[in-house]
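Chapter review: from sequence to fold.
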Amino acid sequence: MKVSAPWGNKEKEDWLKKQTVKRSYLKEVVTEVEKLQAHFEVIHYGNLSINPKLYPLYFVKSKKFYSSKKTIIITGGVHGYETSGVHGALAFMTTAAFKYSDKFNFICAPCISPWAYETVNRWNPQTIDPNRSFFINSPAEECSLFLNAMSVFIPEIFAHFDLHETTNTDNTVFRPTKALRDGTIEDPWSEIPDGFYLVGDTENPCPDFQKAIISSVKKVTHIALEDKNGKLIGENLQQQGVINYPLKKLSLCTSFSNASYTTTTEVYPDSPKVTVEICINAQVAAIIGGLDYLSSQIPGG
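The token string follows.
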């Protein structure tokens, strides 16, 4: 197979020109964030430079932080096209966070990449994958603004839930386009996992924590099965529905702090067995399962 040269600025600009707005971040996300002001503090932490008026950035936090409570962070929309991550984070904060307010402080950034949310993209406008860019002086504006906003909280973060999806377009759109951008060959995954799964940390896998999340999600939707090679997206299965990645090496979102517990959820919205509502509920169930486990590990929990 002939490999073309990696994209330069012209090719990246041509790609950007082809992207179109398909939905409204302000109407679908910001209006829901604003509704949370009655019970949480809503913090405006910046704007994307591509269109500051259209892309204000927000996180939501407990109105009062107590040193006696563990701090939980929930992130969604790191990849803007992964819809249930955004709305799952909002749904949890709206319907379930109050049940855990006696034990935990909460921080929730429901949509880290609003331009990508509107244009249904994995990348940001500069063809950068935010979920490989959570490091100091990141070239991804979405990541640098978020990391700056979180800097004061980093020492306190106990657990991090990062809400994602794996879709059919990962094979049909993203990986082929990534190969063109990088001037490489990107073999498609042998199978897109049909069902929910988790990505833990190779260096800090937290298997009991992951197991509790899977058990909770099972009540809502099906768990992905390994492929014929015993893998999910090319990675060895660690337990039912769980693979591990080297988070810090890859600069994934859950690597930005030294949280004791981390997990990345992966919902499969293209399955004929699910609906939009089921996908959102699966994200909420994942957080609930993880928090129930963490509550059991806290003295007096």
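Two observations follow directly from the output. The beta strands are 40-47, 56-62, 70-76, 104-109, 157-165, 197-201, 231-232, 235-236, 242-245, 261-267. Residues 9-297 form a domain with the Aminopeptidase fold (CATH 3.40.630.10).
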